[in-house]
Structures are given as structure tokens and as C-alpha cells.
Design goal:
The chain has 337 residues and is an alpha+beta fold. The chain contains 12 helices and 8 strands.
Length: 337
């Protein structure tokens, strides 16, 4: 890191000269304007020009036989890396499957198709990162995941397949927030001037990225529980009350721990995080109790066996995600300010 002395200019002005190679690299000259931003850690960031971020665009060349899933992955990657517009150009013409994939993923990312013909599609995001809040986005994502998990347990308790289907469909909403928040995190890394607007310091980016992944995984677990409820209903099978009661007891404990863990993350409540981590052994004991009771029973139906084992796994894995979130809370609480 280069060090420069502060020079006194006149009675009240203090001046620091800018590095010559930085001036040349940004093609600046005397009289040009630079933008200065004070960061929350009291550091100073200088940007060339007026601080207006250029809307970046990228062109993707699509092979005529390229699979739809490959195209979707490319669009997601460009979105996550902060591109404002994505041009997709086919070497021949887009197949029906390719067009459908582009439209589906654009809808999922809340991007709009602005231009389209048989060989060319242009999509762009309408997101203004300077007006976004990472905390608000993550809290909304968490609220959906909480709702999904609560409803999944209620659907399991009441054998409500309609509610289970609603839970399963809500997973797309969590995916949208996941993509959106990950884009914000990458935008902060690529454009430090967004730090003050979004409310996220670069040092916090890894913690938030991990939190987002864990919330997404919790929502996936809820969707999987809903899937097995639907499967049981389709096979006209039910879990016995004694085993179901233990599963619901474990599920409720994990659900409450998850909600508490995310709240502790935002409040940096280390004591609460430690209490949540200590719950893990209790959940493991409940899981073992479910397993023992189930395997000692005379239930032999394949669908019921598969569903009970899978729902057990979903609840236990959810608790592992909860512990990860609690660990994050402890780690981030002792960062130097």
C-alpha cells in the first residue's frame, strides 16, 4: 500500500496528491471531477468521473444445439456478476426449447425481454442497486422460508396436500431473493461505492453469502417435506400418530431454532447463538428416538418408510443449517471495527 503525506494548502485546506499512474489509467486531467465517498469504516474511496456506474452489458453466443440448462446457467452467471443487459445471439435460430429456457430464467430473475427475434434476444434487469437494502432483502427471504417451514409442518400434521403444494411452489420465491441478494453482494465487491447505499461492508460479504445459502437450503428442506406429504397422499398412505407426533416435535424445535438463529445473526446475539448450537444434541436424540420407534414398528409400506426416513433427514439437515447460521453470528460478532 502506497503512503502519501497530507500537505497544508493555505490556512484551512489539507491536500493529498493523487498517484500519477492512477490519473493516467483513468485518463484524467486538470479540471476533471472525481467522486469521494466516506465508508462506514472511516476509509475514503475516490472514483474517477461523477461516480455514475456504467450499465454493463454482455453478449452470449449460443450454439444451435446448446442445451436449455446450459443457457440458463450462463444467464444466471451474468446476472449474478452485475450485468445490466444480456444479449443472446444464436448462430442459426433459437429452438423452441432455448427460447422457453431464456424466457423462464428471465422471469425467475425478474429481467425483462426488451428485444427478440429468431436469432437475437436482449434481456435487461430493472434493478437499481443504489436503492436496494441487503438487510431488507435477506429478511424478506427469511420471512418466506419461515412461512414455508411452518406451513410444511402444518400440512404434515393435518395431512393437507393442498397446503403442501403451496409450500412446494413457494420455493421459486426464495430462489429469486437468493439470486437478487447474491447479485447485491457481488455488486458491492465490484463497485465499492455501493457500500453506503446497500448497507454492506466488503468484510461482511462472505457472512451474508453463507447466510443466504443457508436460508435457501432451509427453504429447500421445507419444499422437500411438502413433496413427501404429496407423495404419501398420492399413495393413499399416512404416518402413524405416534411416529408423526415425534417428527412434529422435532420439526417444531428446529423451526423455532431457525427463526431464532436468523434473528440472532442480525442482532449479533452471541449468547442466543450459543443456546441454539446447544440444541443440536437434543435434535439428534429426538431423531434417534424416531428411528428406533419406526424400525421397531410393523410398518412395511415402501412409501411410508421412504417418507419417514426422508422427512427425518430433512429436519436433521435443517438443524445443521441452523447451527451454521449460529456459528456465523458468533464469528461476525468479534470482527474488528
Amino acid at each position: 500500500m502506497e503512503q502519501r503525506k497530507i500537505i497544508s494548502l493555505g490556512r484551512s485546506s489539507l491536500v493529498v496528491s493523487l498517484p500519477k499512474h492512477w490519473i493516467e489509467m483513468n485518463e484524467l486531467k486538470q479540471g476533471d471531477t472525481v467522486s469521494v465517498a466516506i465508508q462506514r469504516d472511516r476509509s475514503l474511496v475516490i472514483f474517477p468521473g461523477r461516480g455514475r456506474r456504467e450499465d454493463r452489458k454482455i453478449t452470449l453466443h449460443i450454439d444451435s444445439d446448446e442445451k436449455a440448462v446450459s443457457i440458463a446457467r450462463k444467464v444466471i452467471a451474468c446476472y449474478l456478476n452485475g450485468y445490466f443487459g444480456i444479449r443472446l445471439v444464436s448462430k442459426k435460430i433459437f429452438t423452441v426449447a432455448q427460447q422457453r429456457a431464456i424466457r423462464d430464467i428471465s422471469r425467475k430473475l425478474y429481467m425483462r425481454i426488451m428485444e427478440s427475434n429468431s436469432k437475437y434476444i436482449y434481456v435487461q434487469t430493472l434493478i437499481d442497486e443504489t436503492k436496494a437494502s441487503i438487510d431488507t432483502a435477506v429478511r424478506r427471504m427469511h420471512a418466506i422460508a419461515v412461512s414455508m417451514y411452518r406451513d410444511a409442518l402444518n400440512a404434515l400434521r393435518n395431512n393437507d396436500v393442498s397446503l403442501a403444494k403451496v409450500v412446494y411452489s413457494m420455493d421459486n420465491d426464495v430462489d429469486h431473493f437468493s439470486f437478487f441478494t447474491l447479485r447485491l453482494i457481488r455488486s458491492v465487491i465490484l463497485n465499492p461505492e455501493l457500500t453506503n447505499h446497500i448497507g454492506l461492508e466488503p468484510i461482511d460479504c462472505p457472512d451474508y453469502q453463507t447466510l443466504i445459502h443457508r436460508i435457501e437450503q432451509v427453504a429447500d428442506r421445507a419444499a422437500n417435506i411438502a413433496k413427501y406429504i404429496i407423495m404419501l397422499k398420492g399413495a393413499k398412505q399416512e404416518i402413524s400418530d405416534s411416529i408423526l407426533g415425534l417428527i412434529l416435535k422435532s420439526g417444531e424445535e428446529v423451526f423455532n431454532a431457525y427463526d431464532r438463529a436468523v434473528k440472532a445473526f442480525f442482532s449479533k446475539d452471541v449468547a442466543e447463538a450459543n443456546r441454539i448450537i446447544e440444541l443440536y444434541d437434543k435434535i439428534i436424540k429426538l431423531d434417534q428416538e424416531i428411528a428406533s420407534k419406526f424400525f421397531l414398528s410393523d410398518i412395511k409400506n415402501v412409501t411410508v418408510c421412504c417418507s419417514v426416513c426422508s422427512i427425518r433427514d430433512q429436519i436433521k439437515e435443517t438443524m445443521e443449517h441452523v447451527v451454521d447460521i449460529a456459528d456465523l453470528t458468533i464469528d461476525r460478532s468479534y470482527k474488528a471495527v
